[in-house]
Amino acid sequence: LQFPENYLYCSKFAIFLPTNFSEEPDFIPVAEETGLIKQLGDFVLRDACAQAKRWNDASIGRLRVAVNLSPLQMLDADFHDAVISILDESRLSPSLLDLEITENMAVHDMDNVITILGKFREKGITISIDDFGTGYSSLSYLRQLPLNIIKIDRSFVKDIGEGDDGSIAKAVMAMSHSLGMSVIAEGVETETQLNFMLANNCEEIQGFYYSPPLPAAEFEAFVIRHNGQTDTAAG
């Protein structure tokens, strides 16, 4: 969720598995090992873009959709063309798609990653680095990568207001802004954490303070309800 001026919502797509299935950290490596990650990744991206297009056509708000990438997707020679094809197929504006990578993905085959991400940036696609602070990137890597957004890992957010003064989160925000990047704080669950992010010019938050993950129809109702409240307040 972006803070109030623009009422821009970012919806992050995920795969909901049966309750008796493996947890996500086990599921994704299995998909990679069996060679199914390309088909799975294409399915998620196609569904996410189609849903975002429906939401934006319905005029419920300017919605950006975020999709996590697998390392194997990034290494696929056809990946760039597949993404552009899916955008053309869905007729979603590239500016409304956010592709998320991890720090470890970024430092693997650095030159190739920079080239691929640069092509996406040229098309107007947003590039984010997810769970920042948990991997092995460095400032020199960050300066080279064509990133729009740094997402602060929830481990640096969850204890703010409970003995943690937020110094690491604050430092990451200051660094990101100095590099011309926006910031998303992950795992915001309390008003204290929200106010801390506001005070430090964090552009967006992700977390249970506003809502847990929702199916598409419930998310749409949430956005409409929130927009109605903000419109009423503004009037």
What is the end-to-end distance? 22 Å
Strands in their spatial order, largest beta sheet: 1-2-3-4-5-6-7
Radius of gyration: 18 Å
Category by helix and strand content: alpha/beta
User: Which band does the percent of strand residues land in?
Assistant: 5-15%
Overall strand count: 7
Given the structure, what is the number of helices?
10
Helix content: 40-55%
Textual characterization of the structure:
It is a single chain. 48% of the residues lie in helices and 15% in strands. With 235 residues, the protein is of the alpha/beta class. Strands 1-2-3-4-5-6-7 form a 7-stranded parallel sheet. β6 (182-186), α9 and β7 (204-206) form a beta-alpha-beta unit. It is globular, with a radius of gyration of 18 Å. Mean pLDDT is 83; it is low at 4-8, 15-23 and 230-235.
Could you name the key traits of this structure?
single chain; 7 strands; alpha/beta; disordered C terminus; 235 residues
Write a brief structural summary.
By secondary structure, the chain is of the alpha/beta class.
Helices and strands in order, then pairings?
Blueprint (H helix, E strand, L loop, with lengths): L8 E4 L11 H10 L3 H21 L5 E6 L2 H5 L3 H12 L6 E6 H5 L2 H13 L3 E7 L6 H6 L4 E4 L14 H12 L3 E5 L4 H9 L4 E3 L9 H19 L1
Parallel strand pairs: 1-2, 2-3, 3-4, 4-5, 5-6, 6-7
Helix pairs in contact: 2-4
